[in-house]
Amino acid sequence: MSTPHRAVPVAPSASSRLALSSYFVTVWGTGFVVTRVALGYAAPFTYIGVRYAIAFVVAMLAFGLRARWPTRRAEWGHIAIAGLLSHAGYLGGSHYAQRWGLSAGVTALILALQPLLTALVVSRWMHEALSKLQMLGVAVGLGGVALVVAHRVDGAAIALPSLLAVAWALACVTGGTLYQRHYCAAVDLRSAVCIHFAVTAAVMLPLGALFEGFAITWNAQIAGTLLYHVVPASIGAYTILHLLLRRGEATGVTSLLYLTPPVAALVEWAVFGTAPTPTMWLGMAIACVGVAMVSTSRAAQSKTPIIEEPS
Question: Is the Cβ–Cβ distance between 29 and 267 less than 8 Å?
Fold first, then answer.
C-alpha cells in the first residue's frame, strides 16, 4: 500500500521575492500619503468605515467564499478583537495623527516601531528573552525616532494631539499583533481578513456618523483613494500574502516593511512638496536599521502571520 505524499510548497524565485517585497514596501509607504489626500475630503472615522465596508464586499467576492471559516463562537470573538485592534484602533489613531498635522513620513516612522514594541512586551511579560542584537536594535530604533521627533517638535511641526494619536495607533497595532499571535494562530488568513474588515466597518461607520456627522465629499479624489486602499492595498496585498504563506515565504517579505518610512517620505515630498530635512533622513535611517535588527532576528519571527492594514 503506497503512502500518500504531502505536497511540498514551492518557494518563489529570488526575482519573485524581490518583486513582491517591492510591492509591499511601495504599497504600504504610499498608503500613508494616499491617506493624507483622502483626509482633505473626509473625516477619519467616516473614511475608514466606508473604506472597510467596500473592502469587505470585495474581499468576500475575491477570496472569502472559498475560505475556511471559524466553527466556534470563541474563535469568532478572538478574530474580531484582533481585527478591531489591528485595524479600527490602528487606523483611527494614525488617520487622526495626520489630520492633526503629523506628516506621512513621521507617522510611518513611528508606526514602524511596532516590531520593537512587540519585542519589548514579549520580553517583559511573555518571558521570551531578547538577543543582544535585538536589545541593541531597540535602543538604535528608539534613538532614531527620538532624533526625528525632537527635530520636528523644535520646528513646531508636531503637536501633542497628533503624537498622542499616533501613540494610540502604535499601542493598538502592537496589542492586535500579540493578541492574534496568542489566540488566532490557526485561523485561515482569508476568513480572518473578511471578519476584520466587517467588524471594523461595523464600528467605524457609527462612530463617523456620531462624532463626525458622516463628513465626506464625494468626488474623484475620494474615489481614487478608496480604489487605492481597497484594491492594491487591501485585496492585492492580502492575496499575495496568502500565496506567500502557502509557500512558506511570508516572513522574508513582510520583514522588509520597515522600509516604508523612507518610501512614505519620498512620495509625500513628490506629491505635497514636504521635503524631509537632513536630520530627518538621518534619524529615519537610524530607526530603520534598529527595526531591521529586531525584526530580522530569528527570535522575532512569529509563526503567526500579522494581519495589519496599510494606512
Answer: yes
* Closest-CA residue to 276 (of 193, 142, 115, 157): 157
Q: Report how far residue 93's alpha carbon sits from residue 84's, in angstroms, rounded to the nearest whole number.
A: 12
For CA atoms 59, 26, 249, 139, the dihedral sign is negative
The strand pairing partners of 42, in sequence order, are 216
Cell 520636528 found at:
152
pTM (2 decimals)? 0.85
Q: Closest by alpha carbon to 138, among 292, 283, 266, 2?
A: 292
Three-class SS state of 216 = strand
Which DSSP string corresponds to 251-273? HHHHGGGGGHHHHHHHHHHHHH-
3-class DSSP state for residue 42? strand
Query: CA–CA separation, 102 vs 296, rounded Å?
Result: 28
Q: Please check whether residue 140 is in contact with residue 296, taking contact to mean a CB–CB distance below 8 angstroms.
A: no
Q: What pLDDT, in 10s, does the model give residues 95-136?
A: 999 999 998 888 988 888 887 787 788 777 766 777 888 788
Q: Are 84 and 309 in contact (CB under 8 A)?
A: no
